[in-house]
Write a structure and sequence with these properties.
Blueprint: H1 3-8, H2 18-28, H3 30-38, H4 51-68, H5 75-89, H6 91-105, H7 111-121, H8 124-138, H9 146-158, H10 163-170, H11 177-183, H12 192-205, H13 219-240
Helix pairs in contact: 4-6, 4-7, 4-8, 4-9, 5-6, 8-9, 8-10, 11-13, 12-13
Pfam family, one: DnaJ
Organism: Marinilabilia rubra
Domain J: 179-241
Length: 243
């Protein structure tokens, strides 16, 4: 199974089929044929694989789309991605993931079709987590490229993430009081009570437990996202002199 073998094991899932299956088929080898044979068995459904497997494959394909969005992929970008994946997945899996990315970069990514497949098969909280990881990739060099931001915004719409949640995640990668309000999805004219209510709502919405099923590799990013909600609340409290 090559690269994907070390990343997702040997389970079969929805990602074997459709546009994503067409993109990664070369990495699946005999697994794709086995999946086709299995389709229709066990109650007529497709093999499910695991939520983590589908998330990893979705992330690799969408990362590729973001990297290619400005028309070129620089060696420096691959170096940033390598370090990013190493911190998230460890050395061996990061090396294999980068191998998958290098081959995906050579292909045209049918973004609308891929995103539709992700939207249908990946839970909402996991889709929000995908956005956070994509923005982390986009800012790996310390700068958010407007073209890449536009691509991530397009992805957010196509995978069904609400505009308010998209804005909340985007503003986690800026450091100012205006962004703090957007993270809590309120305006600066909100009352102190409304600020507290918004914080409780967003802390619940972005709690790391919502994506615990993705495994420990992605808990660091989930914890970072949750910490940004706390940071935004503390920043607003300090600015207002709230207790």
């Amino acid at each position: 199974m090559g690269f994907l073998g070390s990343l997702i094991g040997f389970g079969l899932g929805w990602w074997v089929f459709g546009p994503i299956g067409a993109l990664i088929g070369m990495f699946l080898g005999g697994q794709a044929e086995q999946a086709t044979t299995m389709e229709g068995k066990v109650g007529g459904g497709r093999p499910q694989g695991t939520a983590r497997d589908g998330f990893v494959v979705s992330l690799l394909v969408l990362m590729t789309a973001v990297m290619k969005s400005d028309g070129k992929v620089l060696r420096s970008e691959l170096d940033y991605v390598k370090n990013y994946l190493r911190n998230m997945l460890g050395d061996e899996k990061a090396r294999d993931a980068l191998g998958v990315l290098r081959d995906l970069i050579k292909k045209d990514i049918p973004l609308a079709d891929v995103c539709h497949q992700v939207r249908v098969n990946v839970g909402y909280d996991s889709r929000v987590q995908l956005l956070h990881l994509l923005f982390g990739l986009a800012k790996a060099d310390g700068y958010l490229n407007p073209v890449e931001v536009k691509t991530i915004e397009q992805i957010a719409g196509l995978i069904g993430v609400s505009p308010s949640d998209y804005q909340a995640v985007l503003n986690m990668f800026y450091d100012n009081i205006e962004s703090a309000y957007k993270i809590l999805e309120i305006s600066s004219s909100a009352s102190d009570d409304e600020v507290k209510k918004a914080y409780r709502k967003m802390a619940l919405r972005f709690h790391p437990d919502k994506v615990s099923h993705l495994g420990p590799e992605f808990q660091k990013s989930a914890n970072e996202k949750f910490a940004k909600v706390n940071d935004a609340y503390n920043k607003i409290k300090k600015e207002r002199g709230m207790n």
